């Protein structure tokens, strides 16, 4: 198991380095400049490029940036908030996106898992139909439509929840955006859980367990569900990153100061440092979560790491 984990970590680190290099090259090919102020002449722009080290070759900039990252230094913003450390900008916004995205992940995964199990155990009944309808609606309707509907109904009409996000009531005001973001995850998990659970319940090992007198919750939890977790985790992993990094439209509807709106603003203003820093964080989150998924594969199903050992 230790060798399996070390191998996955090394692959993840190498992948992150390659992604960062590609991002650097792509940003150099972007049109425009971070210093587009018409009041600046060519000499002043050249001076700014020299000040921030943008006049050096891309590979030199890359390794300098990489060294700074290892020290926890993402540089400063060029346009959004001039000379403000990017780590400060991200520190103000990322926790908000992680909190709301994390709540959406937990809610969507838990409700989706329950709906999928109910639909599989009571297949071709009213509960199966109800779960399917909810899943179809969750996949078909965009999150911002749910956001608008929830905001109007529970915020404007019933006045149960705040219509806008507030730092003073962070959890209470994050409930509606969390529900909005969780709908697609809930629907996706419910569909996959139902499909995989039906396959598991019809398998020979489940019939063998039933012949030994194992029924009900114990049969589902210890035998059927465990064998459906790998495909469910595979589906859930990329959704986690999407939710944690935020949805721009949902952030706009609820006035959430998250990283999604920061990234769009940075791209529009050619603030290279902010773009590359947020892209690096997104990539690190995605690779980190996929690394956890790989490790969970090995824990849930030891046959995976054993098969790798055989191929080696």
Helix content: over 70%
Order of helices and strands: HHHHHHHHHHHHHHH
Outline the low-pLDDT stretches.
none
Number of strands: 0
How many individual helices?
Answer: 15
Structural class estimated from helices and strands: mainly alpha
The N- to C-terminal Cα distance equals: 14 Å
Shape: flat
Q: How confident overall, as mean pLDDT?
A: 81
Tell me the strand percentage band.
under 5%
Q: Roughly how many Å is the radius of gyration?
A: 24 Å
Mind describing the biggest β-sheet? Answer: none
Characteristics:
0% strand; mainly alpha; 312 residues; single chain
Map the helices and strands.
Layout: H1 2-29, H2 42-51, H3 58-70, H4 86-121, H5 126-140, H6 143-157, H7 170-173, H8 175-201, H9 204-211, H10 216-224, H11 229-244, H12 248-253, H13 259-268, H14 272-300, H15 302-311
Helix pairs in contact: 1-14, 4-5, 4-8, 4-11, 5-8, 6-8, 8-11, 11-14, 13-14, 14-15
Plain-language structure description:
It is a single chain. The chain has 312 residues and is mainly alpha-helical. It is built from 15 helices and no strands. The chain has helices at residues 2-29, 42-51, 58-70, 86-121, 126-140, 143-157, 170-173, 175-201, 204-211, 216-224, 229-244, 248-253, 259-268, 272-300, 302-311. The chain starts with a helix and ends with a helix. The relative contact order is 0.14. The chain is 76% helix and 0% strand.
């Amino acid at each position: 198991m230790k060798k399996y984990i070390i191998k996955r970590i090394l692959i993840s680190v190498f992948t992150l380095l390659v992604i960062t290099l590609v991002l650097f090259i792509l940003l150099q090919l972007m049109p425009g400049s971070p210093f587009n102020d018409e009041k600046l002449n060519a000499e002043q722009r050249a001076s700014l490029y020299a000040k921030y080290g943008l006049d050096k070759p891309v590979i030199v900039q890359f390794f300098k940036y990489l060294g700074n990252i290892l020290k926890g230094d993402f540089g400063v913003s060029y346009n959004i908030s001039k000379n403000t450390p990017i780590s400060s900008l991200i520190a103000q916004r990322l926790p908000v996106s992680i909190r709301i995205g994390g709540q959406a992940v937990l809610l969507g995964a838990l409700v989706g898992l329950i709906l999928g199990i109910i639909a599989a155990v009571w297949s071709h009944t009213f509960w199966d139909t109800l779960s399917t309808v909810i899943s179809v609606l969750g996949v078909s309707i965009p999150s911002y439509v749910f956001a608008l509907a929830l905001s109007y109904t529970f915020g404007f009409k019933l006045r149960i929840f705040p219509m806008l996000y507030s730092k003073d009531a962070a959890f209470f005001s994050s409930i509606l955006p969390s529900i909005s973001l969780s709908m697609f995850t809930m629907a996706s998990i419910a569909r996959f859980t139902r499909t995989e659970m039906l396959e598991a319940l019809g398998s020979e090992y489940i019939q063998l367990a039933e012949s030994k007198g194992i029924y009900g919750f114990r049969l589902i939890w210890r035998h059927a569900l465990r064998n459906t977790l790998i495909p469910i985790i595979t589906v859930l992993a990329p959704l986690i990153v999407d939710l944690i990094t935020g949805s721009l439209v949902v952030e706009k509807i609820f006035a959430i100061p998250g990283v999604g709106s920061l990234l769009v603003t940075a791209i529009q203003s050619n603030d290279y440092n902010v773009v590359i820093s947020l892209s690096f964080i997104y990539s690190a989150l995605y690779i980190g979560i996929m690394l956890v998924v790989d490790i969970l594969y090995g824990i849930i199903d030891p046959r995976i790491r054993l098969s790798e050992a055989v191929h080696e």
